[in-house]
Amino acid sequence: MIIDILTIFPGYFESPLKESLLGKAIEKSILTIRVHNIRDYATDRHKTVDDRPFGGGAGMVMKLEPLVNALESLQQEEPQGFVVLLTPQGRLFNQRTARDWSNKKRLILICGRYEGIDDRISHFINEEISIGDYILSGGEAAALVVIDAISRLIPGVVGNKESVDTESFELGLLEYPQFTRPRVFRGIKVPDVLLSGNHQAIKQWRFHQAILRTKKRRPDLFKKLPPDIKKGFNSLEGTRNIE
Ligand code: SAM
């Protein structure tokens, strides 16, 4: 997969793209990430990327010309990129979108700064995405979140596929709780079942915990669970009804 990032702060990405799973995926060429400075596509002498807002008001607005020049230049290459603008006004990013985009051959991510980008950018992009209901100083941190979430779903990036498939949100559930050594820490014990060696009992306990945890912590997700998952839980619980 290829990801092109458009930013006025290319240095922002230097360290995160070298570390951990992302760094390894790039090293192994499973993922190619290219960072482009929007300023390089400005045509005036001062390489201007922002200007004052029409109608007045606070702050500066990112200009269209450098961005559209950059997009048109990048889209001359094959495969065509799916163009995403990071903005707090976009559709909320989630695991389903990460899964969907992990199958794309090429993504182009646009990082805004200042008060945002001239709204006519909407004519040149495929989707506007927000990573949450809060305001960041720029789209760079949001682009990294999106890249991280997508990349771990590309085959070969995370060594153990099972660990990705059972993570929170994949089945519409939060993941079950995890524990490691020591068995007792300051009097707090690990659940006995996990030390039992009974794989069937462990599997059931984890499923049970994932549902209980989702119900308690994320009632919004719990409500959306398919009936067969709730039915599976009820049959484990005997007569108790999770609804
Ligand atoms: N004035 C804008 C507004 O109220 O909608 C916010 C601009 S913000 C300071 C600058 C840039 O940060 C945005 O253009 C966008 O690229 C990025 N950004 C900020 N919050 C974001 C979020 N929650 N998700 C994705 N991108 C975000």
Description:
By secondary structure, the protein is an alpha/beta fold. It has two domains: 2-151, SPOUT methyltransferase, trefoil knot domain (Alpha/beta knot, 3-Layer(aba) Sandwich); 166-239, tRNA(m1g37)methyltransferase, domain 2 (Trp Operon Repressor, Chain A, Orthogonal Bundle), CATH 1.10.1270. The chain is 33% helix and 17% strand. It contains eight helices and nine strands. The chain has helices at 20-27, 64-74, 95-102, 139-151, 161-165, 199-217, 219-223, 227-237, and strands at 2-7, 32-37, 50-51, 61-62, 82-92, 106-111, 127-130, 184-185, 188-189. The strands form three sheets. The protein has a five-stranded parallel sheet, sandwiched between helices. Strands 3-4 form a two-stranded antiparallel ribbon. Strands 8-9 form a two-stranded antiparallel ribbon. Helix 3 crosses helix 4. It starts with a strand and ends in a 6-residue tail after the last helix. S-adenosylmethionine binds at residues 86-89, 111-113, 115-117, 130-132, 134-139, 142.
Strand order of the largest sheet: 2-1-6-5-7
Tally of DSSP β-strands: 9
SS field, number of helical segments: 8
CATH classification, class level of the largest domain: Alpha Beta
Task: Please outline the helices and strands.
Layout: E1 2-7, H1 20-27, E2 32-37, E3 50-51, E4 61-62, H2 64-74, E5 82-92, H3 95-102, E6 106-111, E7 127-130, H4 139-151, H5 161-165, E8 184-185, E9 188-189, H6 199-217, H7 219-223, H8 227-237
Parallel strand pairs: 1-2, 1-6, 5-6, 5-7
Antiparallel strand pairs: 3-4, 8-9
The structure holds S-adenosylmethionine.
The site of S-adenosylmethionine has 20 residues, from β5 and α4.
